[in-house]
From TrEMBL:
Zn(2+) binds at residues 112, 115, 131, 134. Binds 1 zinc ion per subunit. The gene is cobB_1. GO terms for molecular function: histone deacetylase activity, NAD-dependent; NAD+ binding; protein-malonyllysine demalonylase activity; protein-succinyllysine desuccinylase activity; zinc ion binding. This is NAD-dependent protein deacylase. Its cofactor is Zn(2+). It catalyses: N(6)-acetyl-L-lysyl-[protein] + NAD(+) + H2O = 2''-O-acetyl-ADP-D-ribose + nicotinamide + L-lysyl-[protein]; N(6)-succinyl-L-lysyl-[protein] + NAD(+) + H2O = 2''-O-succinyl-ADP-D-ribose + nicotinamide + L-lysyl-[protein].
Amino acid sequence: MKRIVVLSGAGLSAESGLGTFRDVGGLWSQYDLADVATPEGFARDPALVHAFYDARRANMAGARPNAAHAALARLSGRDDVTLVTQNIDDLLERAGARSVIHMHGELSRALCAVCGHRWDAPPVMEPAAPCPACDAAATRPDVVWFGEMPYHMETIERALGDADLFVSIGTSGTVYPAAGFVEAARMAGAETLELNLEASGGRFDAVREGPASVVVPDWVAEVLGD
């Protein structure tokens, strides 16, 4: 059985109504990323940052997993599959996926910037809300901002080094370190495949273009022998 590493990006959840950075008129386009997606922005105006992520959390609560999430959930039942996502939504888990590695954190979780404690985020987060563990008023969303190190990198790098097949789904391939995953997999001898609305221009052995809700279930069906 092939050892498969799957990396998913914003294109996986776009058809569920969760916008990408590049959507014109979407939630992201209404804000300067330096204000809402950096540690410096949070230090300047934590209330603004919390309001932004509260809106994203509400957006996520109203979204539903699509056929691509459901297909990857089926695939996650195999021991030789590692699911890595850049997305901070919970749609893979709500579709039934197991052991998803969230390299950019999770919108549904809160983090104490003082002691590192994590807990389930309420629908609305307040800058002065105390940490349940240490009582510090240092609550932030448990997401990785620009300039911060993504989570679980050692685990991801080990999986890439052992992979027989690396599959990138719905990601532009421009943000590092994820942008370097395809090259790391190639250097380890893995085959590489991109499933995307449009080819990203990365160095993949094969590319399948189309909506995630179509190309991902089709590929999963082939892998599972349906």
